[in-house]
Design goal:
The complex is a heterodimer.
Chain A: H1 2-14, H2 16-21, H3 30-38, E1 49-51, H4 57-60, H5 63-82, H6 89-101, H7 106-133, H8 142-164, H9 169-180, H10 195-202, H11 211-216, H12 223-254
Chain B: E1 20-22, H1 23-48, H2 73-78, H3 84-105, H4 121-144, H5 172-180, H6 188-203, H7 205-213, H8 218-223, H9 225-251, E2 258-259, E3 264-265
Antiparallel strand pairs in B: 2-3
Helix pairs in contact in B: 3-9
Classes of the chains: A mainly alpha, B mainly alpha.
Chain lengths: 262, 266
């Protein structure tokens, strides 16, 4: 019986189908350990070897990795939420109620999306703090720090655009407060410094067409804002952020792996 | 000292540069366990604590206070001390740009890849001041201590929307006019010139410090005038916030300089 199982196992492992998927054995050899990383597109984010020092939690706080982890959680739960949510002012709030009370696991999916998003904001700030405190932005990693700052900004924007989507009192007023700031942009906001002069000269900066209305798609936070924030939240910012993440992770490797004493 | 009998008893000197391990299993295992634990934590948290959903959006019913999301409450708190064009546009932009230029203005090669205070005191002190004091603690104030009318409330105090707070803020030119009897400062043109001189004097600390120190300070010579100028400008701009806060708390100063014609006040 035991022999038979082994025979079957061998037939499977040696079959052309199996071999086309798995390029190396599983035996714990140094060669396989390296191939495990090098021949897997996802694990290939890592180098096949790293400094032991890079494993210490006290050094990394795991903050960058957890930021990415929370991003993945929001992507998965976000896609699930998109099945039940319509970014239309008449439907949005009712869809939220429906999601919370009628959809199986709707409430917990929404909760996970929300809390993971907040956790991502916290982790990305902690990650920046850790990277600063260990001086890891110093040569040769200067540019990767710049990419990181952009990712930090995009994380805040992702969270902020998502804040509007439940279309409740908390959403629209938080977003009203936030976007009102843009009204005061020098030159480009209708109530900002020099706006009156620019408006007199060019007729361009008006409450309807200024830095704020670019965000809110109108003079107040209303139905067009909801659609705009939805598209930014679900499509535009995630794509840009994902692109920058690719650059960020790639540069970690290209700049010599995780930082450490030189 | 004990005798060493065998080569294996000699303690190995570990060089962190060359002490490498295989990513599989060492790092992947750590990531997997970390991810699993955090996922479980997040899942349990999400089972126990529901995300907020308030009344349906109503543009005619403004809640008091209206708060931005928590991570922007530090900026909303700055609105108490600066006009929106500063608090909401210029300062946030300078924060982002200022963070991005850090690697290019900090040319101190020490402290790369390990924690140290002694080898980079100025960098660590100013970053911690900006992040922990100005960013994090202002967020805490905005989340927990601000109530209706953006007035100050202790966390345990009841929010009274009718709390009366005297508006005693004065512009600096008026305060000086009251104190010295220089009534010309009440004139808006004179006030604008007066304020510009003050702000100019503040930023002229940049060249003055350079000229006084550059001959004796090796740090400044290595830094060079461009990097020094950017660093000093960002630092002084950051410090303008605590200065404005102190002026408000002690002297009730509203504006230092006003240009009413172009709607620009600091």
């Amino acid at each position: 019986m035991k022999d038979k199982i082994q025979d079957i196992q061998e037939t499977i492992v040696k079959s052309p189908v199996w071999k086309s998927v798995f390029r190396h054995g599983y035996a714990d050899t140094p060669r396989n350990r390296i191939l495990m990383i090098a021949s897997n597109v996802f694990l290939h984010l890592h180098p096949s070897k790293l400094r032991r020092h890079g494993l210490t939690l006290r050094y990394t706080w795991c903050a960058g990795g957890l930021t990415f982890f929370f991003f993945l959680v929001t992507v998965v739960t976000g896609v699930l939420l998109m099945f039940y949510y319509r970014p239309v002012a008449e439907y949005a709030y009712n869809d939220m109620k429906y999601l919370q009370f009628d959809i199986p696991f709707g409430m917990v999916t929404r909760n996970m999306h929300r809390w993971a998003a907040h956790a991502m904001v916290i982790m990305v700030m902690l990650h920046m703090f850790r990277v600063f405190m260990t001086g890891s932005y110093k040569p040769p990693r200067e540019f990767n720090w710049v990419v990181g700052v952009l990712l930090l900004t995009l994380t805040l924007l992702l969270s902020f655009t998502g804040y509007l989507l439940p279309w409740d009192q908390l959403s629209i007023w938080a977003v009203t407060v936030g976007t009102n700031m843009a009204r005061s942009t020098p030159l480009m906001g209708s109530e900002g410094p020099l706006a009156e002069q620019v408006s007199k000269l060019t007729g361009l900066v008006t409450p309807r067409y200024d830095a704020r209305s670019l965000l809110t798609a109108g003079t107040v936070v209303a139905a067009p804002t909801l659609l705009r924030f939805y598209v930014l939240h679900c499509i535009f910012i995630p794509i840009v952020a994902a692109l920058l993440m690719i650059v960020h992770f790639w540069r970690v490797r290209k700049d010599g792996g995780i930082s450490g004493p030189m | 000292m004990a005798e060493i009998k065998d080569a294996s008893e000699i303690p190995e000197v570990i060089d962190p540069k060359t002490d490498k391990v295989h990513t599989w299993p060492h790092l992947v295992r750590a990531e997997f366990i970390c991810g699993l634990l955090i996922f479980m934590g997040l899942f349990v948290w999400s089972l126990l604590l529901d995300a907020p959903l308030e009344e349906p959006a109503d543009p005619t019913k403004t809640p008091n206070p209206s708060k931005a999301p928590w991570y922007f409450l530090g900026l909303q708190e700055i609105l108490v001390y600066f006009d929106p064009w500063m608090a909401g546009v210029v300062l946030p932009s300078l924060i982002i740009v200022g963070l991005m230029v850090i690697p290019y203005i900090d040319i101190n090669p020490k402290g790369n890849g390990y924690y140290t205070w002694k080898e980079r005191k100025f960098a660590v002190a100013s970053f911690c001041f900006g992040f922990l004091i100005l960013w994090v603690s202002l967020i805490i104030v905005g989340v927990f201590l601000r109530g209706p009318g953006w007035n100050f409330f202790a966390p345990w105090a009841e929010w009274d929307p009718h709390k009366v707070v005297a508006l005693t803020n004065v512009d600096l030119n008026i305060l000086v006019a009251n104190l010295t009897g220089l009534d010309i400062l009440r004139n808006s043109v004179a006030a604008a010139i007066f304020g510009t001189i003050l702000v100019g004097a503040y930023y002229s600390l940049i060249p003055i410090y350079w000229m006084v120190k550059v001959k004796t300070s090796k740090t400044l010579q290595e830094l060079g005038i461009v990097r020094y100028g950017i660093t000093a400008f960002l630092f002084l701009t950051m410090m303008s916030l605590p200065i404005k806060m102190l002026l408000r708390w002690t002297l009730n100063i509203k504006y230092i300089v006003k240009f009413p014609w172009i709607n620009l006040n600091i």
